[in-house]
Design brief:
heterodimer, A: alpha+beta, Cytochrome Bc1 Complex, Chain D, domain 2, D-Maltodextrin-Binding Protein, domain 2, 4-stranded antiparallel beta sheet, 17 strands, disordered N terminus, B: mainly beta, Methanol Dehydrogenase, Chain A, 7% helix, globular
């Protein structure tokens, strides 16, 4: 994962606090404006209508969500189909509006069995929250290297495997929205994640790096959506989503940085970056690893270093002999090794102290899912399942380490790690 | 008597038609011009190019109206609101629904042909205010209509077979058509709907023979075009600037000018589009051959209220001056010089108007109250009349002999707050949150008033407002229909209701009258629906079933 240093360094320090969860009033307001936009001209303002020219939605059975979804998506009688226009969460919002009778009645209690055991109860609550009923939908980066990659059927990669395991935990099939980051100045990967969740393109986003700025909710702001397969054509680049607070699970892995070297030339015992002095170092421009190499090494190291563009090509240049060693994210190394079966590169034991725990993000109001996922993640780390999933994905696994959330990075912090 | 003269002319025409059946049966441009004077035909929307909806027929009158009974009924086989204007020519009546065009035998109501309209199932999404159609145009042996998915179609008047079909624009971007076309100076003219979907409105001229588009006049100018200086946002507001043209214009053959009204600018959030926003909420005078704008008059500059100026433009001669008249949504009755567009009078035609005190006759601009500035700045306001207007689309009638306008009017306001709109093609682009401000009692009134002063002659108040057209006759009668299904006749002088008949479904159609073999008939489409039934949420309509029919009435002996 490429972390753009400039953004990290320039970001204003925001104290980490518990995510704020969307309250009912905000949800209702969204539901009401969605109803007005799509339904009011036939079904009346606040669903008041005589029930002759169009169906009186106040009479729709509150327990028939499925029938509602079918009518809305496919049309019914005189009513046109909306399936190709509505987004999944808009259907949810409309259903919220209808089942609360335009906000006049409380939301019906939807638990299947009040007397069931509490664990099942939590699971049932979590299951009821998915955007597509009966399916857990995850957003995964299409080009996520060993962490996520699209396959003809399903996908591969560590984050994909975790998503699949969590879906199994909910006893649901997994559906993936494969997205591609827009490399625009305006958008950052984190804002895109917020946008995807707020627009309910998916229920969860694995691979969510935990650092202060990523968790300070972009509340009351808007962000653009990245592209994903089957993204409706009308959602152009200028389309902005109102962001909502998010919630995250406990982390399931840690993204770390390590030193990669070319096999024959390396004989060092590395304990800190400056131990690499004398080697021709590669610097991946604009990445955190690159900045650390330049700032935490000696001045001579910085002067001798070769600065190259970031991306998969970086390690390939090393393979070609452009430089001898480099600090890179482990994931980037893993991906290179996976893509290049015959390689002269190797990974040293050393790990840079700076790392990011990664977890699964979801909307604040879907945090009931977290209550199911957290114990599952703990169990999977404990019994070695996570390590197995990593191995299957050709990923060098590192378990998460405390503190869960990386404190805000300043140049001061970086220099103090020398 | 006018009747005798025209009957004679008709007999001559019939005799001629035997000699050259094909061409003589086809209505010519002169036939259209003469339509208002020939009670045996209805060849133009509004019963004459001037759309006065007044007939010189007096066969049905105050003496015998109590014996008015159904002559025949024809099922439109459709449950949407029926707004069709029936046309009559050569022994046939032509009517439409959104889904079909039909020719009926004038004597019996028996269907002669029916041609279905096919449009994609998702089209109704872009119809803000009812899945309706307002009727056909007749010319040169053909029947012309528009379709909900924004096509213009020509059918053979004898057989109903399609002659040509032209796509105007892609409906998926929020464009639709419900308008009855107008044939003026041999050009087929239509206007687009979609003012609540972020469209850029236009009026078009087609070659009626080939379906080839001759011109398109955008009602919202592009940057650099005349009028663009009234879009001061400096951005691209004009691209979604609205100004639909969804009601049929009128035509003056002597001036060779078409008069067409345009709808609200969009979104409703006027603060985002500073400037007057021409030519939205305007009356346009157009050259039928080129679509060039001869003059314009804007009723509500920088309109935040959704005050369309699409309502019918009725011709009259007042004090020797040719005028057009419009009962605008905004509560004022505009009388303009037909040749120049100069404002002559603009009295209020309803009781309660809160957004403006009056119209300045010198500048032609409204004197707005403080509501306008508040609405534009995003404050919560209440204004009267509502977005549905002091009068909605349903056309009025004008009796020139008594200088009286008869119009169905609304008595309610709107609670309104401008918000940031978000554009998505084919989805509502309001830019405002709103709800109705209902009065304690009645919400509607059929009003008879003087066009120059607004002075009320009489009013018939009603709980659920009427959304039907009005017809006036020399029989001393005014016909209209109500939402609960009554087809009604009023004494034109006193306003006394002298007859009514329940048709079984609410009426939002347009009454017409005509003569056959010396006998007068009145025809109306019933079928509840459209903007009020859909949007107002009036639960008192719960026991008014849908289902459209064409009803023709005559006096029984």
């Amino acid at each position: 994962m490429i972390v753009k240093t400039a953004r990290i360094l320039c970001a204003i320090l925001v104290l980490f606090g518990a995510p704020v969860f969307a309250d009912d009033a905000a949800l209702f307001k969204k539901a009401e404006s969605t109803y007005k936009m799509f339904c009011s001209h036939c079904h009346g303002l606040k669903m008041v209508n005589p029930g002759t020219s169009s169906f009186d939605l106040r009479k729709w059975p509150k327990d028939n969500r499925e029938g509602f979804a079918t009518s809305v998506m496919n049309g019914k009688g005189d009513m046109p189909a909306w399936g190709d226009v509505l987004l999944p969460e808009e259907l949810d919002l409309l259903w919220h509006y209808v089942k609360t009778r335009a906000g006049k009645e409380p939301e019906p209690f939807e638990s299947s069995d009040a007397a069931s055991d509490p664990v099942d109860d939590i699971k049932e609550q979590a299951k009821a929250l998915t955007t597509t009923p009966g399916t857990l939908t995850a957003c995964l980066a299409k080009n996520g290297g060993v962490m996520s990659a699209r396959r003809a059927k399903g996908g591969a990669g560590m984050d994909y495997e975790v998503a699949a395991a969590l879906a199994a935990e909910l006893e649901m099939p997994l559906e993936v929205r494969w997205f591609e980051s827009e490399q625009e100045e305006e958008s950052t990967p984190i804002r895109e994640n917020y946008a995807l969740l707020a627009y309910e393109v998916c229920d969860i986003i694995p691979g969510f790096a935990l650092y202060e700025t990523s968790l300070s909710a972009f509340y009351n702001t808007r962000a653009a959506l990245p592209r994903w397969d089957d993204k409706p054509a009308h959602l152009g680049q200028e389309f902005q989503v109102d962001l909502e607070p998010i919630s995250v699970t406990d982390p399931y892995a840690r993204m770390e940085m390590g030193v990669v070297y070319r096999t024959p030339e390396f004989d060092r015992d590395v304990e800190k970056i400056s131990d690499l002095e004398g080697l021709k170092l590669g610097v991946e421009q604009g990445t955190l690893a690159g900045v650390l190499t330049l700032r935490q090494g000696t001045e001579k190291m910085a002067a001798d270093a070769v600065t190259l563009n970031p991306g998969p090509d970086f390690l390939w240049q090393m393979e070609q002999g452009a430089f001898d060693a480099a600090l890179v994210t482990i994931g980037a190394y893993d991906f290179h090794k996976k893509q290049n079966f015959v390689s002269t590169l190797a990974l040293d034991q050393y790990r840079h102290p700076l790392g990011f725990n990664i977890s699964v993000a979801m909307l604040g109001r879907k945090k009931a899912m977290r209550d199911v996922f957290d114990p599952a993640i703990a169990r999977m780390i404990q019994d070695g399942t996570m390590a197995k999933l990593a191995k299957k994905s050709h990923h060098t696994y590192a378990a998460p380490r405390k503190p869960w959330v990386q404190a805000h990075l300043t140049m001061q912090t970086i220099l103090s790690m020398r | 008597m006018i009747n005798r003269i025209t009957k004679g002319a008709f007999a001559a025409a019939v005799a001629l038609s035997f000699l050259v059946p094909q061409t003589a049966m086809a209505q010519s441009a002169d036939d259209l011009i003469n339509d208002a004077n020939d009670p045996t035909t209805i060849l133009t929307y509004g019963m004459g190019y001037g759309q006065t909806r007044h007939s010189a027929l007096d066969g049905i009158n105050l003496e015998n109206v109590s014996r008015l009974r159904p002559e025949w009924t024809y099922s439109l086989a459709d449950s949407r609101g029926q707004e069709t204007f029936p046309m009559i020519h050569d022994g046939k009546m032509y009517v439409t629904t959104h889904a079909a065009t039909m020719a009926l035998d004038l004597a019996t109501g028996v269907q002669v042909w029916k041609t279905m309209v096919e449009y994609p199932a998702e089209t109704p999404r872009v119809a803000c205010c009812g899945i309706v159609n307002r009727g056909v145009a007749l010319y040169d042996g053909m029947v012309f209509r528009t379709t909900l998915d924004a096509h213009v179609v020509a059918l053979n008047a004898e057989t109903g077979e399609e002659v040509w079909r032209t796509k105007s624009i892609d409906f998926k971007d929020g464009y639709s058509m419900t308008v009855a076309p107008l044939v003026a100076d041999g050009v087929l003219i239509t206007g687009i709907s979609g003012g609540e979907y972020g469209i850029r409105g236009y009026i078009e001229g087609y070659n009626p023979k080939t379906g080839e588009r001759m011109w398109r006049t955008y009602t919202i100018p592009a940057p650099g075009e005349p009028g663009s200086e009234t879009w001061k946002d400096g951005g691209d507001a004009w691209e979604r600037g609205g100004g639909p043209a969804w009601l049929t214009g009128s035509y003056d053959p002597e001036l060779n000018t078409v008069f067409w009204g345009t709808g609200n600018p969009s979104s409703w959030n006027a603060g985002l589009r500073p400037g007057d926003n021409l030519y939205a909420s305007s009356i346009l005078a157009l050259d039928p051959q080129t679509g060039a704008i001869k003059w314009h008059y804007q009723t509500t500059p920088n309109d935040p209220y959704d005050y369309d100026t699409t309502n019918e433009l009725v011709h009259a001669e007042i004090d020797g001056r040719k005028v057009i008249m419009q009962a605008n949504r905004n509560g004022f009755f505009y009388v303009l010089d037909r040749a120049t567009g100069e404002l002559i009078a603009a009295p209020k035609f309803i009781e309660k108007v809160t957004w403006a005190t009056d119209i300045n006759l010198e500048t032609g601009r409204p004197n707005e109250t403080e509501i306008g500035a508040a609405a534009r700045s995003g404050e919560q306001v209440t204004y009267w009349p509502s977005a549905l207007g002091g009068k909605n689309w349903s056309p009025m009638a004008y009796n020139a002999k008594t200088q009286t306008v008869f119009a169905n009017t609304n008595k309610f306001g709107l609670n309104y707050k401008a918000v940031e709109p978000q554009y998505r093609p084919g989805v509502f682009y309001f830019g405002a949150e709103f709800s109705w401000d209902w009065p304690e009692g009645d919400r509607g009134e059929l009003r008879a008033f003087n066009p120059m002063t607004g002075e009320l002659k009489w009013a018939d108040s009603i709980a659920i407002p009427r959304y039907s057209g009005v017809l006036s006759t020399d029989g001393g009668l005014v016909f209209t229909g109500n939402m609960t299904g009554d087809f009604e006749a009023f004494n034109a002088e006193t306003g006394e209701k002298v007859w009514s008949y329940n048709t079984g479904s609410g009426i939002v159609g347009q009454p017409v009258t005509w003569e056959r073999d010396g006998k007068q008939y009145v025809t109306i489409a019933n079928g509840v629906g459209a903007v009020y039934a859909l949007f107002a949420g009036d639960e008192r309509l719960a026991n008014v079933p849908t289902g459209g029919n064409i009803w023709t009435f005559s006096v029984v002996e």
